[in-house]
Design a protein that fits this description.
Number of helices: 17
Number of domains: 2
Length: 371
């Protein structure tokens, strides 16, 4: 295609993006609203991002796309449906089971979206400079998605769509083309508080205000250290992420089950059992979660999460498996094992204390042994 060919109009770009496999395609200027900038600045100032230091490190570029890329004129926002076939909360009542967030039950969505965005970007490169992003750069995707009309940021701070409910992966291509913007989406939450009230750890300080430090998704995925003791019993059997606030949204009545094979649940994650995971070594963990977003947290954090779920199971059958992890090479795992053992059998923990606590060198694990 010749670079002298006139650039395609908005609807031609939308049609090509849909042909790339996206379910929704919208356009907005590559700028961020002042109220969004103020919200994000306040979020950081209050420390509610926890130890997600990357949010603060790139705050100037995240707040303003023009700092990230001054030549950008339009953000082409895309969404890909990953709607589940059943209620994501169905496994929460299974004490010996595990619950993994819907988005992580199969292939890493970054890989799926990036491949399709690259096709779109290469096509557009005949007429403009382009950059593509899939949650991999300091871009405030959810506010841009609302500006473009994909949906609105609900009271749980996630995007809600009138057509797809809570279940859209987002990506974007920035371009130097000036493209007529779509109409932004307005808030349709009304008086509903479902997402705020269902949160197991009371992570919402108010509508549209999330303290990530209490969010189970943050705690099980982003947080690198021991999970605060007071929050562990509230986590139930959630071992990777949490969908509660998404799943209870009334707008999900309009959601569709995904048709993407890469987003269908892997067999071993359909009603999985905690016993399947607790004994994984590093090689087995990597093999089981190859190509999955779960793999990126590493075996130690994953087993930490599993042990918390085990500690919440009330199932003494797990005690031998816990004991095997009391001298694990990872201090994070050892500490979680101590807590789980104390929860299921204080008597056994007391017997093990003399042997393991005396030779422990890590301060965080020593603290777990301390009543």
């Amino acid at each position: 295609m010749s670079a002298t060919t006139p650039p395609p109009n908005r609807e031609a770009i939308r049609a090509f993006a849909r042909a790339c496999g996206f379910d929704v395609v919208r356009f907005t200027p590559a700028v961020t609203r002042d109220d969004t900038k103020a919200w994000f600045t306040d979020f950081l100032a209050q420390g509610q991002h926890g130890d997600m230091g990357w949010l603060e490190a790139n705050a100037d570029r995240r707040i303003d796309p023009n700092v990230l890329w001054p030549e950008a004129r339009t953000a082409i926002m895309v969404g890909l449906n990953y709607g589940p076939s059943s209620d994501p909360r169905a496994t929460l009542a299974q004490k010996d089971g595990a619950t993994v967030s819907v988005y992580a039950r199969n292939r890493d969505y970054h890989d799926v979206l990036k491949k399709r965005l690259r096709r779109l970007a290469i096509w557009l490169a005949a007429w403009s400079d382009v950059k593509l992003f899939v949650d991999t750069a300091p871009v405030m995707e959810k506010p841009l998605a609302q500006q473009a009309g994909i949906g609105w940021q609900g009271k749980h701070t996630n995007v809600v769509s009138r057509d797809f409910g809570s279940w859209l992966f987002l990506g974007e291509v920035f371009t130097t083309l000036e493209i007529e913007p779509d109409t932004h989406e307005t808030d349709h939450c009304g008086a509903c508080r479902n997402c705020l009230d269902v949160c197991p750890t009371a992570a919402f300080t108010g509508p549209y205000k999330l303290d990530a430090r209490r969010c189970i998704s943050y705690l099980t995925i982003e947080h690198k250290g021991p999970i605060p003791r007071e929050l562990r019993p509230l986590m139930g059997n959630r071992i990777y992420g949490c969908d509660d606030c998404l799943a209870v949204c009334p707008w999900n009545k309009f959601a569709h089950v995904t048709e993407e094979a890469d987003f269908l649940t892997r067999p071993h994650l359909i009603a999985p059992k905690l016993a399947t995971f607790i004994g994984l070594d590093d090689a087995a963990f990597r093999a089981m979660f190859s190509g999955s977003p779960v793999k990126r947290i590493g075996r130690a954090r994953f087993i930490r999460n599993v042990l918390i779920a085990v500690g919440n199971s009330s199932d003494a059958a797990f005690i031998p498996a816990i004991e095997n992890l009391l001298d694990d090479e990872s201090a994070l795992v050892r500490g979680a094992a101590v807590w789980a053992l104390q929860r299921l059998s204080p008597e056994t923990a007391q017997k093990k204390h003399a042997v393991y606590a005396a030779r422990e060198t890590d301060e965080s694990v020593k603290a777990e042994w301390t009543p």
